[in-house]
């Protein structure tokens, strides 16, 4: 298995290079040069497999011979040892053929644990084979950074640098970030939005200032962020349809990686009949799917803060697929997007996307009603992000005969204060976390300031 850039098919990398990277050198994203296709008979035969064996069957073709099978099996199995539910991703029924796939039983109680736990082990595996060290860098509006800190804690040869929007991160998430060991975790506030943080990280990788340190991105621009999530779809599809019955999915848009992973699972052979992209009022993806116009804009603060942004880097991978894996087409489109801030694709490509994808934007009043309704009518306690997905799935499912699965990305307890306001939380509320004063915030777009901050941190002893 080898990988190419979405902007240039001549840029090639093996799995090790892809793991120990961020964007490709040309600004594109790494994608498999070909996708493994699995026969319906083989997929159906997986229905009895335990979770870690299923993970190996799905992921091994993307790894190729970069890791021997025995070591890979052990690495994958170890990635889920900190999960608290023995099913790893249990299903909860909330209605007629309606389900929630609970992805929040990992150590930080969000779906971000899947990619973080796998990436930490893959990065460590490859660094152990060399004298190199890595700086793992990324942007977060809360949960992604927390998951990265937990996963990479005490990993040798690795430090973390985490950018976050100073005024747009919930206090409990910021307190959890600040609880990381300052000897190995550098927090960098940015006076801007989460989109500004992502843009700054992308620019940093193009002008890497730290000689002797491998730059690795913990956001889903790194292929591992997609790879870890393909398994969700196979697990749910096998549980509910034995791998032969079509299944639909509603995906709260906290990342396009999870959405794109569903597309990949279908291309591999899993019978998925629909993927609903469910957004809150930050509806850039909804507008793209309905109007063929993608235009990121200033985000609004909502009840579902993990979706409060509009810049989705993995959309580039999906567009590459729609354009027949044409790097030159994607390069031209992304150059136009970077120049003018909006993007439309060809009508044929847009119609192709609509064959699988639908979307729905849920407003704040609908979110509140859905949280209360699910508690009263299905005995299901859900956080606002899951409520967005569940409502969109019920409103826009194409077939009542096909199971509709909402990806439940965040544990309800992480929204306990809001759930208590809505009268559905029965436990005690945790005290307000104590947030420390952080370092001075970078101005958005201040690449020089970011480079100086990273250089200063690396000069300090671990």
Automatic annotation (TrEMBL):
Domain Tryptophan synthase beta chain-like PALP, chain residue ranges per copy: 89-330
InterPro entries: Thr_synth_N (IPR029144), Thr_synth_N_sf (IPR037158), Thr_synthase-like (IPR004450), Threonine_Synthase (IPR051166), TrpB-like_PALP (IPR001926), TrpB-like_PALP_sf (IPR036052)
Pfam families cross-referenced by the UniProt entry: PALP, Thr_synth_N
Residue ranges occupied by any Threonine synthase N-terminal domain in the UniProt entry: 2-80
Gene3D superfamilies tied to this protein: 3.40.50.1100, Threonine synthase, N-terminal domain
GO terms of molecular function: threonine synthase activity
Signal peptide stretch: none
Enzyme Commission number(s) of this protein: 4.2.3.1
Coiled coil: none
Cofactor: pyridoxal 5'-phosphate
Keyword Lyase: yes
Primary enzyme class: lyase
Keywords: Lyase, Pyridoxal phosphate
NCBIfam families associated with the record: thrC
Protein family membership: Belongs to the threonine synthase family.
Name used for this protein in its record: Threonine synthase
